[in-house]
Structure prediction request, 298 residues.
Amino acid sequence: MPADQLLESRDVPLGGLRGLTVHRTLPQRAIPTIGAWCFVDHFGPTTEPMAVLPHPHIGLQTVTWPIAGQIRHRDSLGSDVVLRPGELNLMTSGDGVSHSEFSVGDPEAPMHGIQLWVALPEATRAGPADFEHVTDLPQVEGPCWSALVIVGTLAGRTSPARTHTPLVGAQLSVKAGRAEIPVDPAFEHGVLAVDQDVTVAGDSVPHRQLQYLAPGRETIVIESDVDTTVLLIGGEPFEEDIVMWWNFIGRSHEEIAAARVDWEEAARRFGRVDGHGDQVIPAPPMPEVRIKPRRRES
Prediction:
């Protein structure tokens, strides 16, 4: 199991070279997953619009969490909802789904949020696609902190969102000073500094960076000079090998290559997202080398 360490973000254009810039902290070469969380993109605050045309997924759940701004989600299941801060969009891809995401509302209003993926386990990854829009998330609080529980359980409060492995995800509002958050010692965790620098378990975590914390602790201490927001994720270590490329999570190079062909050929498994005509995001070329499973360094 890796030791506690800082995972630094890298900038990535979302939806193409001219897309919204996101700050990606997961996956990393040394740590591809935290629990089953396998992808963390932090975007904004920015007045750049989100404009992501239909694109496919397999083998994962998308977790969309806005902090400011509104996002319209449409998918091949027929879902068409506007997501607002404090609400959760959870899309389960199963063997195939496609969706689009566009910012809506006041074009001058800032966009700020986090997009995450959760790897599905072997037992359910080829199941049916599903979508949940959750507007009533549980709240919990302790000395110097409060939280919205996005998925899983924190401090005895459980989100109604459906997960397939033991997980936690929560937005924490931490007051200036020292907050001590109770957590499951069987979980590994990550703490994302959402809006400014913080100290996590004694280590400095700069704005936009993610602190990895190994299993074995019953509390996580977060310190800040001012009131701040952080994102807490965690789960039981995910032991399955995954092959992750573009928007797909599979178990072999061949599975990924087949999904790419199906998307390019508009196969039935990915359906169609209404409202965009024939516009979709094309799949990039497959790499010239064989895609290998992502394995963490010990």
Notes: The chain is about 5% helix and 50% strand. The first strand starts at residue 5 and ends at 7. The radius of gyration is 18 Å.
